[in-house]
Amino acid sequence: IGLIGEVFAGMTDVLLPARQFQAETGSRIVRISMKRVHDVMEAGSEREVAQLEKELRRTFTFGRFSQKEMQYSLRAALAIRKIVAAEKLDCAAFNSHSTLGLKSKRLGIMCALGITLATSNGCPIAEVGDLCTAFALWLGRRWSGACFYTERDSAYLSALHWFVRISGVLDRPWLRRLLT
Questions:
Q1: How far apart are the first and last CA of the chain?
Q2: Helix (DSSP H) and strand (DSSP E) numbers for the chain
Q3: DSSP code at position 105
Q4: What average pLDDT does the structure give for the chain?
Q5: Would you say 110 and 73 are in contact if contact means Cβ atoms under 8 Å apart?
Q6: Which side of the chain, N or C, has fewer Cβ within a 10 Å radius?
Q7: Is pLDDT above 70 for 154?
Q8: Dihedral angle at the C-alpha atoms of 92, 98, 100, 106, nearest 10 degrees?
Q9: Distance between CA atoms of residues 100 and 89, nearest Å
Q10: What angle do CA 174, 177, 180 make, to 5 degrees?
Q11: Percent of the chain having pLDDT more than 90?
């Protein structure tokens, strides 16, 4: 389980005791600083950014973004993808409330694309979530094959289908399997 970003004073998240968690589950908690996210963003090549944009345009239509916002968003997505792969994360909590997170002009909400893509690709990430939320996502995916994270609205469609919108992350691979 990855803990991306720093827990800040006044944050009410519940922290899992790392040693006890590892002893009882066999899994470890990997701490990843927001500075590392920024460093990996900067290290990404223009070629990698262009490849990701091309890949995404096959499926998605982009809204009105400035070129700078688009670059930051794509670079953050690449950084999150690389960190998830390098650390072999099964799930993560992304604590972005910091000067290097949401308050950063270079990252801000731009990490949302990377978090959504990571979840869609099998590594559920709880944005502004704590480790308990990440662990719940991991358990949900492991036990039932699917996980959902939302902070606000989810619209019920039928007994077997959910559509999650507004805030949160949808487990698209599971939904695709369900609908086919």
A1: 30
A2: 7, 6
A3: T
A4: 77
A5: yes
A6: C
A7: no
A8: 100
A9: 22
A10: 150
A11: 22
Provide the CA 85 distance to its chain's centre, in angstroms.
13
Structure tokens at 168: 């949160």
- For residue 168, give the 3-state DSSP assignment: coil
Structure tokens at 78: 């690449």
What is the identity of the amino acid at 34? M
Q: Model confidence at 8, in pLDDT bands (50, 70, 90)?
A: low
The tokens for 154 are: 């989810």
What average pLDDT score do residues 119-125 get? Answer: 83
Amino acid identity, residue 112?
A
pLDDT grade for 158, boundaries at 50, 70 and 90: very low
pLDDT of residue 118: 87
Q: What DSSP state is assigned to residue 16?
A: P
Residue ranges of alpha helices (H) inside the chain are 18-25, 34-43, 46-57, 67-87, 111-120, 131-144, 172-179
**Do 146 and 140 form a contact (C-beta atoms < 8 A)?**
yes
Nearest 5 degrees, angle CA 15-CA 27-CA 10?
Answer: 10
Longest dimension (CA), the chain: 48
Pairing verdict, β 154-156 and 125-127: unpaired
